[in-house]
Predict the 3D structure of the following.
Amino acid sequence: MQSVVTKGKTIQEAVQTGVDLLEVSKRDVHIEILQTPAKGFLKIGSKQAVVRLTMLNEKGEPAVRKDERPAPPSDIHEPEKENEEVQDWFSQAESFFDKVDVEKVEQVKTGQPSARKNQPTSEELLEKHGAVWVEDGKLLMEAGSHKLPVVTVPKEIKLYRNQKLIEEKTFILSPNDSYRLSIEDEIKKTEWSITIDQNKLKAYLKIEPGYKITRTILDAEPSSHLTISFNEQKDTYLNVTEREIKADMQEKSILQNVDKIELMRAVRSTEPEEYTIARGVAPTDGKDGWLELKVETNVKEGMKEDEHGKVDFRETKVFPNIETGDIIGIVHPPEEGSSGYSVFSESLPPKPVYPVILRLGKGVKLIGDKVVASEFGRPHIEERGQLVKIAIMPKLLHNGDVSLESGNISFFGDVEITGEVHNGMKIEAQGNVIIAKNISGSHCNATGAISVKGNVISSDLSAGQNNMVTSKLSILVGALKQDIDRIIAVITQLVNSPGFKTTDFAKGGLQPLVRILMEKKFSDFIPRAKKYVQLVKEGRAQLDDERWEETAEQISALFLTLSSKPMSLNIFSHLSQQLDSLEEELELFDESKSVISVQNVLNSRIHAGGNLYIQGQSCVHSRIHSGGYMTITGTLRGGEAYAEKGMYIGETGAESGTPTHLAVPSNASIKIGTALEGTVLRIGNRKKILTENHYALTASINAKGQIVLR
Amino acid sequence: MFSYEIEQESERAKVTFEGDLDIDCTETIEDELIPALTGYKSVIIEFGAVEFVDSSGMGLLLNLVQSLKDEGVSVYIRRVREEVMEVFDLLQIPEILGRHTFVG
């Protein structure tokens, strides 16, 4: 039998089966792998190893049996002959190299383990085992009589046998082939990039210098198993020039403000680093225009000592007054900032600055850069952003009592009454009211503060925006503006609709369209517009700005009368803007200035937008309300008191048991000097009735939402 | 150019509109159509051939339908083009005339 084909799970198994069948040893056969094994999944697609074994004769041809085979020649002077025999063995070994133990092969091959025991010299060993060495980078070898030399090659070095690259790491050298070693140098190029920061104020050059690794194969002494080693030298390899970088900068239009020194350092850099190669200059911001106030404009609160060191409790308020010709303030123009420039040499403008927008009301003139009072009165200044509204509130001094004789008082400005206010009278002021004596059975409304130096008996006092025309208007103005904006949006959408023609706009304007819109889609608009016009008419005296009336006139001309004047979208946008600024105007109103201070109160109603001070001995059976803090130095008996920011009351409750209700929001507290049994405290939505007398009491809401008394 | 055609069938009439319903139709609708259609029990307006409307045209349509309804004529508008209906919806014309006035 010359050859046999066998199968097995692995190549070894197949070979083993083959040699067993042939009754020879592995080295006596030529092994040909016909199919390499493959593992499948659950045997599907798996393949068995298939090999063909062919008996070898001396010349490598299949012929004779193992026992007939002549011994291998031991003559080392004719290595080629020996090689002929070994070479085929070699190629067999190669096929399943990984599994072959070189040492074992050697033993099998030599079959003379006794040779070792002779303690041969190293040269003898080399003769036996073969030798491999490196000289001038070349791989040289000598086959041994019993063994072939083995070489281990690191991955950086490539080993070629007959110009063919050997993939294995460890390789058995056969004498007939030519071997070549090669090693490559490694070059990494310099990497660099230019980035600009967000503000365009800096250009960065990020440079990662390249390197070159030069490798040389080290010579090695002969050995039967040689591991080839090499030398490595790493040098910085800068292959970027200033010119290249400059070309890129030019492309990115970074032309000026270049830091040449940094650039030079960058191209010589040996470490990865970021260099700032160009810098712009940030703009410096200017200052908005502003109004420098030269007079006191706020109402001063609090007790004041006179020159004798005495405190007049009736003089707790000081209303500022100015004379004609007084300088109220100086207008400072905006200061422009200076421009900067970016790394691209673009100009970077500073933030725009805005001048003060002065809205001068009555009694105020602008002379040069100075705001001067042209009338006697109280300066009234409201500021919001860059908008400053200045007016002199005229003052009406009413000498004596207000009675049927004098008639009611309605005044645009402050009102001072030196006498009493008798039953059934009405005082209305767009400003502050001072009543030197008592007010009884009357109404007093002021947009500013109210100060009654006497008592309040069966009267209604209201300070602030509440109950005033403006509060009603503010809701209307918002709604009207929303409507107008929606109308503009609908018209814009309509004009862009494919089925809509705008032919009649030229003839009749928007009227036909607006008429249809008012019919259903904006059916609330006409009633609103009517109400606005009516309110403005009614409250004319209290509305100091002409724009209220202007707008009312425009609204009634556009929507409330049959006008033939063509309407355009511009008119709508203009109206929307006007309503917007009117809304702003209303927001300027500062309720906290609407303070009320009075002495004693009896059977009255008081509503203060700001703080409320009751400085007399008592406040009896009254409903009092404060948008700020409420201070009652005396006794509060009966009635209801509510304060937005908390309250202090000297004494509450009544021995007679008349309920006295105190209320504040949940974030405020109630302080009472002496709280009598039966006082009802309400904080937020919690309520507590005092069942016993308390002294120096503070009531507030704790974290659990319960009223706590301290 | 706007034109119309009336087909009558005892007490019912079908009016087919053709062309754009715009400000130029004012006389046609107010002086001719309204008098011509008053007296029927029901009127169907075929709207499929109307490609564009303007605001005056819509005003005229509202006037036409409401005048006829006031005279006790039930009016239906049929086959309004999608683009035109978009305009009608934007102005809530179906709400003004009643949704049932518009039929497929």
